[in-house]
Amino acid sequence: MIPLKSEEDLKMLRDSGKILARIMRRLRDFITPGVRTAQIDALAEKLVMQEGALPAFKGYKGYPACVCTSVNEEIVHGIPGERELKTGDIISVDLGVNYRGYFSDAAVTLAVGRIEPKLKKLIAVAHRALFEGIKKARPGNHLSDISYSIQNYVEANGFSVVRQFVGHGIGLQLHEEPEIPNFGRPQEGPFLKNGMVLAIEPMINMGTWESEILANGWTAVTKDRMPSAHFEHTVALTAKGAEILTD
Question: SS3 of 129, please?
Fold first, then answer.
């Protein structure tokens, strides 16, 4: 069953989303060549705590950090550590916030210094795919209309869509119903309704869509080790349309 949020819930989720958006802007500015992924994690946790919130990922099913830092061929769930970012890398930063029991979730892929044109295109297509999905997040559509629009846009631009990991409902828990694949046929699955809150998150690869998990049990990488990009927003469905809470 897909939970519907009340007006009071939405008010609190807006506050959570605004906090997350502020933190993500600070992290964007911090990421430069020479920064270690552990430093990104430390700054993120400091900023979350300063906002009177809690890091949603840390300890979740045993995850050991505040943020996920996925570099180059890493798709999602990259664990921060001593890796030093270099010019030409790309990095996906995924962060969740728990503000007074209300969860928000967002991700962005960033260039580290100057990057190759093909990487710029990968990032641009992943970013646009997110908004192609959000455009379909309106009452009366099917859930799979979001999925189909993302896949259609990504594949039309020569990239592939990850199958193993999906978006999700969010709100009073970090992960709620429904799962939101980034692929599929249109006009399938449940109808979308006002009050649903969704974490829409396309993950796209330069090569094959296939992935595998590293020995740490968390980090997903592309099977062919080609680069991957990931964007995410928390979106509420309201009478006025899709409202991006983490923008």
Answer: helix
pLDDT range class, residue 242, cuts 50, 70, 90: very high
Please enumerate in sequence order all residues whose Cβ is within 8 A of that of 138, keeping only pairs 6 or more positions apart, or say none.
192, 237, 241, 242
Spatial separation of the C-alpha atoms in residues 239 and 139, rounded to whole Å:
8
pLDDT for residue 60: 97
Structural contact between residues 130 and 232, judged by C-beta atoms closer than 8 angstroms: yes
Per-residue pLDDT tens over the stretch 134-161: 999 999 999 999 999 999 999 999 999 9
Task: Identify the structural domains of the chain with CATH numbers, from first to last.
Answer: 7-244 (3.90.230.10)
Instruction: Tell me the CA end-to-end span of the chain in Å, nearest whole number.
Output: 27
| Crossing angle for the helix pair 7-30 and 37-50, to the nearest 10 degrees | 140
